[in-house]
Amino acid sequence: MCGIIGIIGTNPVAPLLLKGLERLEYRGYDSAGIATLDNGRIGRRRAEGKLFNLADLIAREPIVGTVGIGHTRWATHGRPTEANAHPHASDRVAVVHNGIIENFRDLRAELVRGGHIFETETDTEVVVHLITEHLNQQMSPREAVAEAVARLEGAFALAIIFAGRHDLMIGARRGSPLAIGYGDGEMYLGSDALALAPFTNRICYLEEGDWVELGQDAATVHDASGAVVTRDIKQTALSGAIIGKGQYRHFMQKEIFEQPAVIGDTLHALVDPLRRRVELPDFPFDLSAAPRLTISACGTSFYAGMVAKYWFEQIARQPVEIDIASEFRYREAPLPEGGINLFISQSGETIDTLAALRYAREQGQKILSIVNVLESAIARESDVVLPTLAGPEIGVASTKAFTTQLTVLACLTIAMARARDAVSAETEAALCTALTEVPACVAEILNHDTAIRKIAHFLAEARDVLYLGRGSTYPIALEGALKLKEISYIHAEGCAAGEMKHGPIALIDETFPVVVCAPSGPLFEKTASNIAEVAARGGSVVLISDKEGIGKMGDYAEHTIELPPIDPFVAPILYAIPVQLLAYHTAVIKGTEVDQPRNLAKSVTVE
Ligand code: F6R
Q1: Is 602 one of the annotated active-site residues of the chain?
Q2: For a substitution probing ligand 1, which of 255, 296, 298 has the most ligand atoms within 8 Å of its CB?
Q3: How far is Cα 572 from Cα 471, in angstroms, rounded to an integer?
Q4: Superfamily of domain 3-247 in the CATH hierarchy
Q5: What is the pLDDT of residues 423-471, one digit of tens each?
């Protein structure tokens, strides 16, 4: 996972590396480090934990140099200690790495037999020893890197500097993303354009197997065969400005409260409010003709896909299959000719989702993606991209990305339903009207923040929490449980309300809160029975419903959260808001690190 950055120029590089790393911390915050060339010699500063520890260290023990590399780590191999922090180095070379070297054990054993002494538990250190070995055999840096990289199996993006070579930095990628930034007398390498945005908006993404030699003014890109190739340089619209929390205590809180605006922006791009019609960009394939729509995603994005499965099947009458991306390609499911594969990702860099996309591409599927980061690998490798206009999401727990994904998926459902002749113009108009009311309804729900905070005190006492939902709000129960566990560390499970009696009901006792998402409508009565079953066993129900639902079942609940009456179509978008707020306030009460929960990272770029 990890974020990497490299800068070769004429300005003091340490503060610039820290600035770039600030924007990469979403990729991991187990440790951070930089290496620079100080009069030709490699110097390093590394610190355990978050970036501010490294910044403090550098303030106490400054490091000079105009060429350097930096890293923020999400630990895979080796504990999150200073010794395991990147950059890893010998006296000849320093390396930062994102990815996993899968054959590192064999390489390490071979190198140890050859007399190399290892200082860390990481997979990355083998790269340092391999390159050093080749440099000691009088190879040039370029030859040494080529030989070393040829031995590596797995995924990597590497940035490498060499003792005595102020004029050279080498980058290489296979499986993990790496971008070149073109500056004015200064060149950059970075895991993504976001890290490079404070320095330049001229970005070139390396392709699979590429490697690059950087000087202060130029970059020479080679493909996997070693041939010099030209890759497009693009202008990125990403802002270099640091994104602040404004009046909010946490990014997650700010992002929850941004939802009326960003859902509105996303709708604005896709719905014509006057004609009450969805207007999608042109597709290079026919939306009506796919025998099957196959959806893959991870985590919260997967739950957005689960909601959409209900929509596509019920409204567009489109057969859908959905799987978590980390399982999808290993199933080797037969994919029908002419099938459309839909990938959903906030970051657009989740490696499991990207690998599933590549598998679908190999199977001749049409590739459609919904992403928030348009510069991402998933966006670049798709036939069509429908962007979520959520803006940068900094809190590790996804909130506004989720509801904007649902918004795009709802619009896609309507467009597909129209293309498949599954809805009349009147039905389309009614669905569009329901969608255009969502931002105002979300704003209204956010007004319940104080009441929801009080209920969070109740959840904060619990050891386990069960979330129930039925139909298209079942995935919201799963999402509510995921949100709670990832930021408050309380164990939580989401369950289809009808499935509870097949096992989970055994867990219910007086200590066990059950959060039920139950909009009134055709499925309400069935869920009402499940609420009664929980109450009969002493469980404490938190009922999220509308006036009608609370009127019917409020007496069975310890706490209620009343949402506005809405069209059942948009219920999943609206019911996501109270479960986000419940998780947020519970985490704040428990005093956890809400924006950067332990062991997690915003962008999951390892399998
Ligand atoms: C949970 C969360 C994760 C992500 C998952 C996929 O709050 O944020 O479960 O949804 O890691 O990430 P993306 O959407 O970037 O592919």
Answers
A1: yes
A2: 298
A3: 10
A4: Aminohydrolase, N-terminal nucleophile (Ntn) domain (3.60.20.10)
A5: 999 999 999 999 999 999 999 999 999 999 999 999 999 999 999 999 9
